[in-house]
Amino acid sequence: MIGRRRKQVMNAVQLALILIAILIMLVPIAWIFMAAFKNHIDVFQLKLFFTPTLENFGTVFEPPFFLGHKLMNSTIVAFVTVVFAIPIATMAAYSFSRFRLTGETTMLVVILATQFVPAVVIILPFFVMFRDIGLLDTRIGLILVNLAIVMPFAIWMIKGFIDGIPLDTEEAAMVDGSSRLQVIRNIVLPMAAPGLLTAGIFCFIIAWNEFLFALILTNKDAVTLPIGLALFKAEEGDLWNLLSAAGIIIMLPMFVLALIIRKYFVQGMTMGAVR
Amino acid sequence: MAEVILKNLTKQWGDFVAVDGQSLEVSDKEFLVLLGPSGCGKTTTMRMIAGLEEPTEGEIWIGDRMVNDDLPKDRDVAMVFQNYGLYPHMTIFDNIAYPLRVRGTPSSEIEPRVRKAAEQVELTQFLDRRPKALSGGQRQRVALARAIVRTPKVFLMDEPLSNLDAKLRVTMRAELKHLSRELKVTTVYVTHDQIEAMTLADRVAVMKDGVIQQLGSPDEIYNDPANLFVAGFIGSPAMNLINGSIQGGQFVTTGGTQLVPVGGDDRKEVVLGVRADDIRVSEAGQGNIDVPIYAFENTGEATLLTVQWGRQRVIAKGDRYLRKEQDDMIGIALNPEHLYLFDPSTGSRIRT
To answer: What residue in A sits closest to B98 (Cα-Cα)?
Structure first.
């Protein structure tokens, strides 16, 4: 009986710890959610009950904020980044996974090492280069920078998925009469599809949330959503309600993507189990 | 329809020699089994025939064409893999149809040919399923159907039965044999299971350390092993290998005094090979020698008697109704027709 009682206590402790962890993570988000629907007076009070308003979501798209333009920039930059990153990363990952390349390990480590370089360190050279070739404050410039950021990540992630495809399957396809390209198209791509989708969504999230480079390399035309948040500063202080509304607009696609990713991530993990 | 010819085939990875200058001719429509323990180079040999591995040296001929530089797809072979190598994202129908589709077979022909192949391996009711929904034996059948759906010059099978459970393996073995006699296509079959080799093969090539030790019909390698390795590898229970010497035409065990007539010149060190079946078990006093039973095992279909003969233990097969106890004395007699002598230093057979 003592053992059982002890187990109950342990379960309760476990539950409490989980709840605390969830609370720590969710409270800021909950605050944002509430603030976004408050008017500019309520927002400075920690009220749980208030009359919700959608007004903020309208205001942020109006002058002088023009959030629509930033939303467009963010969408284009993140989307084009993914469109280029995934095919290129897939080709690189396939080569790393299936061929013995000279200097393979070194290349892989170097690719990974680029991730360790703090962005602040290389942002100045980027700024100078972009200024000289006229890429400053352009979407193309941002896309290039984002590609540099997500590619190493995408290559490693997709390589993991391709490694999980049994070599037998590919060899069977080759003996069955496929060329290498047919093997990739008919066998590898469909089997790695959940992985590619997962990697694509991760890249989208990274590009969508990218802040530092966008802050330095853009000032008007190519400003993205995260930078746009900084606009909600007025002489009377920070406009918390508008800031929150914009925050929700930034977060919403991420929530949707997270839901999709969850489904495919599991599928991607179990795919290799088929023998 | 074609023969497969290997000429001085060698495969090396750095210093490691997987296949060492092997030559082999597989005749048209022959079922040849490459048999050996793991790491003996049998799979590597097959993968070189398939074109999945490039030979370091030597030539591979399929029919009248040297295929060394041909891609796997251009060699016109079909291969069955140990792990089946099915396409998990396709239905069984599409799996079987893949070799036809990728080779541009007209779509009107595909359907009947897939159905026919599926019928031959009894898979017709599963064509809409995915590989995931099939059992191991059924998956292996899909792999077989995919191989037989077109008529390749050569079938290559890489341990196709070793992932199946023991009972299924026996059933599939018979099906495979039936199918191979029906199709009459040149086949190279890799296995480490000597029973598969014995039952399926027209000829068996026993390999060790990248070298073919003996090439012959199952009867030949069983009844006339070329060396110690083949003798010890083929047969279950394994052939008894007894150390001793020959003195005046008699075999004397090391440290023992028991004698068995074998004939031949005197030799200081020999290994006598005798199969369990070739040792006749009788009551004490009625055989060549009397020995105590170390262990008595009843397998149901026969009895296995491990006896202590001098310093060595020897397995004899007894009648299924024989009943003995441990430490009982029995007489054993060696069938003089089927005794094999080997040189322990070289492992080669001594023929008298």
So the answer is: A176
Mutate one of B70, B81, B142, B146 to test the A interface: name it (highest A CB count within 10 A): B81
B86 contacts in chain A (CB < 8 Å): 169, 172, 274
CB contact under 8 A, A175 and B87: no
CATH 3.10.310.70 corresponds to the domain A58-271: no
Tell me the residues of chain A between 147 and 176 that have a Cβ less than 8 Å away from chain B. Answer: 166, 168-169, 171-176
What was the pLDDT predicted at A273? 41
**Integer Cα distance of A3 and B326 in angstroms:** 51
- Which residues does chain A have within 8 Å of residue B75's beta carbon, measured at their own beta carbons? 175
The full set of domain ranges for chain B reads 4-233, 240-350
Q: Among B84, B142, B158, pick the best mutation site for testing chain A contact (most A Cβ within 10 A).
A: B84
Distance in Å, alpha carbon of A206 to nearest chain B alpha carbon: 30
* CATH architecture for segment(s) B4-233: 3-Layer(aba) Sandwich (3.40)
- Global pTM reads 0.80
Q: What is the 3-state secondary structure (H, E, C) of B29-74?
A: CCEEEEECCCCCCHHHHHHHHHCCCCCCEEEEEECCEECCCCCHHH
Length of chain B: 352
Task: Extract the tokens encoding B322.
Answer: 């024989």
CB-count exposure of residue B10 (10 Å: 0-12, 13-18, 19+) = middle
Selecting from A166, A174, A190 the residue whose C-beta is nearest the C-beta of B89 gives A190
Confidence at residue B205, expressed as pLDDT on a 0 to 100 scale: 95
Under DSSP, is residue B149 helix (H, G, I), strand (E, B) or coil? coil
CA distance A106 to A163: 18
Residues B6-35: tens digit of each pLDDT: 999 999 998 899 999 999 999 999 999 999
Q: What is the CATH number of domain B240-350?
A: 2.40.50.140
